[in-house]
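Example record

The entry below shows one chain as it appears in the dataset: sequence first, then structure tokens.
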Amino acid sequence: MRKITAALCAVSLVLFGCSRNNVVEDDSIKQYFDEHKVTGCFGQFNNTRGEFTVYNLSRFADSAYLPASTFKIVNSLIGLETGIIANDSAVIPWNGVPWFREACNQNLPMYMAFRESCVPWYQELARRIGRDTMQFWLDSLGYGSRHGRAEISKIDTFWLDNAVKITADEQLGLAKKLYFNQLPFKRWVQGRVKSMMTVETRNEYILAYKTGTGRAPNGHLIGWVVGWIEENKHPYPFVLQLESTDPGIDMRPTALAVLDKILKHYGFKEGKK
């Protein structure tokens, strides 16, 4: 691992109060990307030490991709903040159109729609929020703005069709701010979304994340895992981004497998952090 110069740091992580001494580039985890025949990047923030660990820094900072289902984090925050959806128990009725994931073909509360990553449910939520309100919140968050203003194309597909793109750097900033209730939403709203993201609660650690999969304009499969792991009340926000040219790859389990190996590589899931 090596420290990054202040010049690179200023480009990649300016949103996080980056300095010469708090960014470490680590190529040791490349083996886990290679093992699964994917390319990508990873970034993690150690809040205790105020230090960032990044693999593939140029991609992490400068390459933007569709957020896919990780946008459900923001969609949920906006829906709850505006009162479009009252709470995570509120139901949006199924529209009767079968979707490939059977669990989504029913009336679902937000909590289950989030956990099952039901695209039609969140498309309806976006339609209810509306273009103007959605754009207001994207602008307020600076969401996907690293390469210019993120502008909505079609209200119910812009996070799926490459109309709006986001960098891994920006995703890590979102996860970090959400964990610490630093986003411009009510505290209870951020708390509800964090609860929906929590997938493992063990004596040794708490793991929270949202996955996302989609296709880049070149047809490559894109995968995301955005969230944090907490051990001994010390949080470590992270983002993993993957890309594959293999049309047969199942990206979600691949991304989670890579994430698990990276976290264990860094000594997580043992309660010793």
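Notes for this example: The longest strand covers residues 221-231. Residues 2-265 form a domain with the Beta-lactamase fold (CATH 3.40.710.10).
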